[in-house]
Amino acid sequence: MAFDDTLTRRQLLKGAVVLGAASAVGGPVLAACGGGGETTEPSPTAAGAPKKGGHIMSGVSGGSAKDELDAHTAYRTVPQIAMQWQLYDALLGFDPEHKLINLLAESYEASDDAVVHTVRLKSGLVFHDGKPVTADDVVFTYKRILDPKTNASGADQLSDLSPSGIEKLDDLTVRFTLDRPNAVFWEALAFFPNAIVPVGYSPRVGEGLIGTGPWVMKNYVPGERADFTANPDYWGEGPFADELSMIQFADATARLNALIDGQVDHIELVEPAQVPIIESNSDLVLLQAKSGGWKPFTMRIDQKPFDDVRVRQAMRLIADREQMISHALSGYAWLGNDMYAPFDPGTPDLPQREQDLEQAKSLLKQAGYDNNLTVELITSDAVGSGMVAAAQVLAEQAKGAGVTVNVKNVNADIFYGTDYLKWTFAQDYWGTRNYLPQTTLVTRRKAPYNETHWRDDEWEKIVDEAFATVDDGKRNDLVAAAQNIEYERGGLIVWQFNTLLDAYRDTLGGVIPDTWGQSACKSRYNLMYFK
With helix as H, strand as E and coil as C, how does 7-70 read? Predict the structure, then answer.
């Protein structure tokens, strides 16, 4: 059964704010603890000691032969990210309910002016090769991330940090002194591509992938599969199985068939249309997770026709979001309103944007397009379940405003290849984040994934001020102001937030939902066990 789509945005945000507020850091972070959401499967801890042993086989989405698993640069495809999670850990992180927790950190503290941030590691941590984790590794890691030659995914979230500001205090303690205040610096420490690696880390494809994660790399064939063995020295819960294999399938039908035939124990990214098949099979279990993950349409504001804000607003008014959710996702999503970060406590209650074809026509005519606008929309199954269908639904809706949308479906190698971030009109996917860290990835001037090529001086000034504002209430007001600007003139059509679907055989336990937005269980294979 899908989550109730009739809830108002205010109701959704009221519940979401509780989660977002729980992420605020005003002092030391508590030790990591287990968590969970709605599920028919109890937490392994709650259910008693899970069984040990076995080989988990998971069917995941297709990637690329060009994929690699460098802790700091591999951040392109869904399976690539999921494989990273098995190998590496950051200092901080989020539990399944998006509450901030410690991972490798024993404690984290920020100074009153948000300039000095101090992290102390847990004692007794070791890497996959048996080497102890020390402050030297933390210093090396963050200097590697900041090195332009690394081209690290998390570097932009560290724009307030210089290499000289990273200091070892003792064997387990590191102090980060920022160039300017950053009241949400903890978000960068919790960004999973900022994972801790050993001094001298220099991986190659399938080799040297050394981290502290629950699984140790055994074999890796990019675009095909990854095989792992359990990390006997893992600091956290599990793993309970002895081995894990993540098998890549190019399409959802092949994944489901592999699950039905017993070739795999678990699959991610179930298509909504496949739900009746799963629910009719007594050997299979459907897992749902309502997340803050989102899959936007992206319009480049520096290229025609989207360089005109009237065209961008017209496209947003063309979208019948409820119809798209119903037709493309069978109702397995919740309503979006052209802004991301629904769980951020600063997110304002903006007027819900609804389809208005007459207003869209008027805006297009003002922009010089009178039933004669044609655009190409690039889509791919690699973006996620139902996204090709969503593109086709939007194309049908656009006809009502005299707009021709030519949908072009490409494979993952092309979509996330050399032209990624160059598409004039396309789609993409993102997980659950608060507003400010998301801006460092998609909308700030140096954001590595600025799909819309967003540039706005007024907005940038507000966001810069928000990063430097320690007072939570004042920072939330600035976040709301920045969101209002993007809502009025941004290049994203955020029409939904994900209800994620996984499926697994009933012989598997410890499968719990996660809000993050990658797969319904966030690929937490360390918690899974055979009954």
Answer: CCHHHHHHHHHHHHHHCCCCCCCCCCCCCCCCCCCCCCCCCCCCCCCCEEEEEEECCCCCCCCC
Mean pLDDT (whole number) for 339-355:
94
In CATH, which of 3.40.50.2000, 3.40.190.10, 3.40.50.150, 3.40.50.1000 is domain 41-87+213-291+500-531? Answer: 3.40.190.10
Averaged pLDDT, 279-307: 96
Structure tokens at 244: 């894990």
Q: Is 406 helix (H, G, I), strand (E, B) or coil?
A: strand
Cβ(425)–Cβ(375) under 8 Å?
Answer: yes
Alpha-carbon distance of 322 to 109, in angstroms, equals: 43
Query: Reduced to 3 states, what is the DSSP secondary structure of residue 88?
Result: coil
pLDDT computed for residue 48 by the predictor = 64
Q: Is the pLDDT of residue 10 over 70?
A: no
Is the predicted pLDDT of residue 364 greater than 90, yes or no? yes
What are the tokens at 518? 């990658």
Instruction: State which CATH number among 3.10.150.10, 2.120.10.30, 3.90.76.10, 3.40.710.10 fits the domain covering 89-200.
Output: 3.90.76.10
CA proximity to 357, closest of 340, 377, 371: 371
> Domain coordinates of the chain in residue numbers?
41-87+213-291+500-531, 89-200, 297-494
* Whole-number percent of the chain with pLDDT over 90: 76
CB atoms within 10 A of CB 352: 13
Average pLDDT over residues 443-458: 92
